[in-house]
Each structure stands twice: as C-alpha cells, then as structure tokens.
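Write out the 3D structure for:
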Amino acid sequence: MVASALRRALQQRRCARCDTGPVTELNVLGGELEPCGTDPLTGYYRDGCCSTGPDDLGSHTICSVVTAEFLAHQASIGNDLSTPMPQYRFPGLVPGDRWCVTARNWLRAYHDGVAAPVVLASTHIRALEIVTLDALSQCAVDVPADPRDLLD
C-alpha cells in the first residue's frame, strides 16, 4: 500500500508552487507550501493546495493520501468522502488520492488508529493549531524533489 501511495505521490508532484499571490503560505516544516494534488483537484479553494483563510471554517489544511480505512472511518463519522458531489466540484475519492482534509477529522482518525498518510510539505502550517507536528510526522510520506534520494 505504501509503495503504491508513493508512486501516486510522485506522479502528482508538480514543480510549481502554490500561487497565493504576494503572500507566501508556509507548510508545517516552515518552507513554502507545495501543491497537494490536481487529480482530483483538491483544496478548499480547489487550487490544488491546502491553502486556508477565514472562510475555511473546517481548516482543510492537511494533505493526505487517503486509504480505504480512512475513507471508511470518515463515512462512519458522517464525512462521506467517496460519493461525488458535483455541486461542490467534489469528484468522490478513492484510495491513493491526495486530498486536503480537515485537521479535526484527520486528528479524530489519528486517535482512532486509521489516520491517512500525510504529505508534510503540502500541509499548511495552520494545521498545527489543531494537530501536533509529532502526530503528523508519524504519518508522513513525503517524497523528495529528486526521487533518487530514496536510494541513498
């Protein structure tokens, strides 16, 4: 499962940074926020990034690689992420998709033992208002800019 998640993460990685205008948004590592996913197009603002703002009351700040267990958990707590909802430009997710999930629901899944893997470089720093960096790091699946670095 982890190998397929890494392959999918490599396929979806883009060189471009999140275009947030004159203000640079930061990730939980203190660097520039990187895109989370474009297939499907994720983010509260559907810009591919886990950007947030005052209108994002759910704090869609954690870039996750969703698993079947995570999706089932979310459905069990009333957050169906598998059913398409075109009116919200939401395609429905399948295992392996990268998606900006709400920090509170990710934390709940973490406490229940089914947290989805996290891409730290694409997780907004504001996630730390709800989830500890330690918890996020325990589930990290970041892929280096040069995948050959994995061979070292």
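The helical segments are 2-12, 68-76, 103-111, 133-138.
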